[in-house]
Amino acid sequence: MIVRELQDHNYTVLEASTAEDALEMITREVPDLITLETVLPDGDGFSLCKTLTEPGYTKYYAQSPTGHLPVIFITEHDTLEERRKGFEIGAADFLAKPFYRGDVLKAVNNIVRPNKRLIGLTALVVDDSQMARRISAEPLRREGLTVFECSDGDEALCFMEKMHKKIDIVITDLKMPKMGGDTLCLKLRQDLGLTDLPIIFLTAISDHTLLLDMFKVGATDYLVKPFVKEELIARLRVHLERAQLTKNLRRIIGSLKKANDEIRTLSITDPLTGCYNRNYMGVQLKKEIRTAQRCKRSLSLLMCDIDHFKRVNDRYGHTVGDEVLKGFVECMGGCIRADIDWVVRFGGEEFLIVLPETGVDGVRDVGERLRRAVEETPLKTSGDALSITASFGGTGFGPGEPPNLITVRNLLVTADNLLYSSKNNGRNRVTIGPLIGIDAES
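Request: output the structure for the sequence above.
Response:
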């Protein structure tokens, strides 16, 4: 039955009816896989499998791609004890009788021609027993995972400190001579912050109280030894799929947050100069006023306008005019307090500077500093550097100002009127005045 099923699917099959025949045959032609009955006329399959791991035979298949010879046990007694015994001596899989058409082919294909469903993912297997690591690692490799191995918790922690971004799942023994799996799990969760990383414990302990302690330190799941590889693979897939969904969800949330931040930035930013626009001013200036009133602090505004800007556009073109506007904002940005004061493009070549915690007396100094910086700083353009001047009008309020006088409209209109006083009196000057009541609307 085995021969016919495999030959029908393009496998070349060699046959041996005894352990002696099989060993002699392997010295002449090394197969890619052995299906092995657990009971043989001249012994048992477990003894034969163990013999194949001895140096006298490993030399025949040491140069194979995997470096070992996979064995599928055929058994009438598929028990956990038999599986444990088989896996400890290197078995790749078990197939219980009676089996049906397709079962053998499926088991062989899983090893020789695996459908690597988890390819691209990476696992770390931690166990102080090399054989135990192999029992866990080999089924994972056949599923397509890249598998790293560590012999204790200390080694695993050092490995994860460097490689945690590349590891998708950790499978660890609970009891190990140095650092145990419980301490390793706790450090991965707390010290490295790997809250979403699936961590599966392998343990011979079945006491529920002790098992609950594993979850307290951050275990995702556990398997009690001896386990069957199908259960390990099934649980691993579930947790990897969940982890991938979580990772994808976090990535999508991060992308949406970034997109929302970018949209918000675009909605409140002047696209040419990079300073704030009037949308932002309409909301933020009210907040600044309320904060100043609540905390009994001062707030001032400076309205400014580039002198004779139309001449720049008419003589040099709008491209140079745009460069002048950008340079003008950069120049002002270097003269005000970062993260405290802010600039708004109010319209055309007109700008507003909001100065929290600055009274009417202090705003004159700021205005003069800005005026001199603009006058003394030629602005770089695609042509020659251009020298410009600007006019300023400023006002503000302090803690003693009547509340009904302090409105957005009163501040803007007063600052704008003082700006035009500067322009009407010769330009390139700063005019500061008290807040005037235009109306009582905010």
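The chain has three domains: 1-113, 116-267, 278-432.
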